[in-house]
Design brief:
The structure holds 2 protein chains of 2 kinds. Chain A has 20 helices and 20 strands. By secondary structure, chain A is an alpha/beta fold. In chain B, a hairpin with a 5-residue loop joins strand 2 and strand 3. The chains are: A alpha/beta, B alpha+beta. At the A-B interface, loops of A face helix 1 and helix 2 of B.
Chain lengths: 580, 163
């Protein structure tokens, strides 16, 4: 006889069959049947957050760090609406996530019942897909579809809205979890078009001033090995987007650093002057391109992406290749190895000479002998103390850019941040999600005193579930990035960008049961970090009093092009384009 | 340029709002939208009239294809196609105007499908501009009501949009 289960039990059994380790959630009326089913087992561990937004960020970061989908469970109404920010965060960065939301019982849907909202309607624009379960016999199949859709093609969050009557413990139906599902309306393209790849390889090999521009798709598509191989085989310079950092090891000489609004001088100049761009799993985001009409005026563009809609969305490309990055790069490598001609050596030598001139201005240099703590210095010291091996999560703002610029990521899935949506409050719950996945690894959350307060309540979750993370608070008593824009564009009218009642974070950390440290002098930075990371089993809140007026450089201001960067120090000899 | 996009979509609740929501969220222009089930009750067919330059239409079709419920779609404007719209018009009539209205209906190959002493209901199908021309043949005071289905279309030749 087939196993008969209630809807609540089916849900939990589906998660077990999917191999889910953790569910991040918060109980409430509409999901009580499900929570009762969770109570009766211990295979799937439930992580009780303190706010549903944090549940989504933790699950999201777990997915970013492991490659496995994150799972969230929230109740109807406010439970679901609180989760929306985190769902949108995952959607913008294409992170596989399953959100299970309770809904009021089917018969009262539409009657403005207690804790009722149209969750499917509210989340529709920020999920890859969503389902409303109307029949308990379809529940298992729907969950399978949710996992299938979330993890294939261009990944993304999928929400399953489950009315309370569907999980009724008194209604039991035979359980069967399908091993595979197919959907006639959903068939993501995997392998790229051979003719297009051939065309791309021809253009690549003829390039005189090539550059490889790679993004988060390389990490999501597990294609970092192929990317490294391709870059080294060609000897071409490579730059990465904020989301792509770590796919290609940052310390490598072929790596020019991040590109875009706060990218390096050499990366942005090389993009601007290039004649061929190979874009791999990147989406020409506005923070990367700057002013579109001035974007890379001399380049032929090859674009590999699993999502056809990403191709020629903002920048018209010359050779589109739709497919998963890994098989496409594999095919490219094979064709390049068999090609009759090789990269143009003399042209490359010239190109590298130009790039090294740009590099020589050392655009990330900052005042190192300051007697105030420079935020860049803290990140550099963190890099050294952790040997570059920590998982780094961040919130959003200046500290996020410092982390991207000064922590030289050399492995994929180590840099966990909200790139697309730019969600403040992401960092701490993200660190908890990562630490649960990798309890033996160092996990640090680089944050600021504004961002950290958006999900500070998760310090409580960190204690309950023993996730000893290190919080690197770059405390400049300002919303730094807002202040920076106000300085540059609003004649330093700092409208609402600082708070004059910032909590004492040391006491706050202690109140939550953790260790708090306040660091005020540059000479104490290193020691504090070493001490904190030596406390393997404690969450430590390191409150660094950093320079209030420090800015992130270089910067491409709104409406400017890659070759119009604002630098900390203008180069003594301008590198005007002699190439164009 | 005007495009007619024909879509086969899963006949699921919410499918229509996914399409409509996509257009409003991304700021695409939508002139009309018709939807009804097909001979296969699990599928709906939508006909959507939109306009935009080639880049916008390319994005629209890509974004529509990206919706999980969309099974298939074609841009009818890419090859030869037939387009029809249904219109029902209620016209005020008087003893003096009834014959003239009837002649107009005959010229436009419409049908009078309801008659009262003071009104006609006229049924007419055709391309949208023909329906426009018919309506413009009357002064505004004599028109009681106009109902139009929005255009729907089908490609010429043997090939068709099906599974």
């Amino acid at each position: 006889m087939k196993l008969e289960l209630s809807g609540g039990q089916i849900l939990v059994q589906c998660l077990k069959d999917e191999g889910v380790e953790f569910v991040f959630g918060y109980p409430g009326g509409s999901v009580l049947h499900i929570y009762d089913a969770i109570f009766h087992q211990d295979e799937v561990k439930h992580i009780l957050v303190r706010h549903e937004q944090a549940a989504t960020h933790s699950a999201d970061a777990y997915a970013r760090a492991t490659g496995k989908p994150g799972v969230v469970l929230v109740t109807s109404g406010p439970g679901a609406t609180n989760a929306v920010t985190g769902i949108a965060t995952a959607y913008m960065d294409s992170i596989p996530m399953i959100v299970l939301s309770g809904q009021v019982p089917s018969p009262v849907i539409g009657s403005d019942a207690f804790q009722e909202v149209d969750t499917v309607g509210i989340t529709r624009p920020c999920v890859k897909h969503n389902f409303l379960v109307k029949d308990v016999t379809k529940l298992a199949e729907t969950i399978k579809k949710a996992f299938y859709v979330a993890t294939t093609g261009r990944p993304g969050p999928v929400l399953v809205d489950i009315p309370k009557d569907i999980t009724d413990p008194n209604i039991k139906v035979p359980y069967h979890y399908p091993e595979k599902v197919s959907m006639r309306s959903y068939n993501p393209i995997v392998v790229g078009h051979k003719g297009q790849i051939k065309k791309a390889v021809d253009i690549l090999l003829q390039a005189e001033r090539p550059i490889i521009y790679s993004g988060g798709g390389v990490i999501l598509g597990e294609a970092h090995q192929e990317l490294i191989e391709l870059t080294r085989l060609l000897g071409y310079p490579i730059t990465q987007t904020l989301m792509g950092l770590g796919a290609y090891p940052a310390p490598d000489p072929l790596f020019l650093g991040m590109l875009g609004m706060h990218g390096t001088y050499e990366a942005n100049m090389a993009m601007h002057e290039s004649d061929v761009i190979l874009a791999v799993g990147a989406r020409f985001d506005d923070r990367v391109t700057g002013k579109l009409s001035k974007f890379c005026p001399y380049a032929k563009i090859i674009h590999i992406d699993v999502d056809p809609a990403s191709i020629s969305k903002t920048v018209k490309v010359d050779v589109p290749i739709v497919g998963e990055v890994k098989p496409v790069l594999e095919q490219m490598l094979e064709m390049i190895r068999e090609a009759s001609h090789q990269p143009n050596k003399p042209a490359l030598v010239e190109w590298w000479k130009t790039i090294n001139d740009w590099r020589s201005i050392d655009c990330l240099d900052y005042e190192r002998d300051s007697n105030i703590i420079k935020p860049q210095y803290v990140v550099e010291q963190l890099y050294e103390v952790t040997g570059g091996n920590a998982f780094i999560t961040s919130d959003v703002g200046q500290h996020q850019m410092y982390a991207a610029q000064y922590y030289h990521f050399n492995k994929p899935r180590r840099w966990i941040n909200s790139g697309g949506l730019g969600t403040m409050g992401f960092g701490l719950p993200a660190a908890i999600g990562v630490k649960l996945a990798y309890p033996d690894s160092d996990v640090a959350c680089i944050t600021g005193e504004a961002s950290i307060q958006m999900c500070i309540q998760e310090l409580s979750t960190a204690l309950q579930f023993n996730t000893p993370v290190k919080i690197i608070n770059l405390n400049n008593r300002y919303m730094g990035m807002v202040r920076q824009w106000q300085e540059f564009s609003y004649q330093s009218r700092y409208s609402q960008s600082y708070m004059d009642t910032i909590p004492e974070f040391v006491k706050l950390a202690e109140a939550y049961g953790h260790v708090g440290m306040r660091i005020e002098k540059p000479e104490d930075v290193r020691g504090a970090l070493e001490e904190a990371f030596a406390m393997k089993d404690r969450t430590v809140f390191l409150d660094f009093m950093t320079d209030r007026t420090e800015n992130v450089y270089p910067m491409i201001e709104a409406g400017k092009a890659h070759n119009e960067m604002k630098l900390r120090v203008a180069p003594s000899t301008p590198f005007d384009s002699e190439l164009s | 340029m005007r495009h007619i996009i024909s879509i086969l979509i899963e006949n699921e609740s919410g499918a229509l709002s996914r399409v409509a929501g996509l257009f409003s969220a991304r700021g695409y222009n939508i002139e009309s939208l018709t939807v009804a089930p097909t001979e296969d009750s699990s599928l709906s067919r939508m006909t959507l009239v939109t306009s935009g330059n080639d880049e916008i239409i390319e994005q629209i079709t890509k974004q529509l294809n990206k919706l999980i419920d969309v099974v298939k779609l074609i841009d009818l404007a890419e090859s030869a196609y037939i387009e029809r719209e249904l219109m029902l018009v209620k016209i005020k009539t008087t003893h003096e105007t009834r014959e003239e209205v009837k002649r107009m209906v005959d010229i436009f190959r419409g049908k009078i499908i309801d008659v009262t002493p003071n009104s006609y209901v006229i049924e007419m199908t055709g391309q949208s501009n023909k329906l426009d021309a018919f309506v413009h043949g009357f002064d505004a005071e004599s028109i009681i009501e106009v109902v139009r289905s929005g255009p729907t279309g089908i490609s010429r030749g043997e090939k068709g949009l099906h599974l």
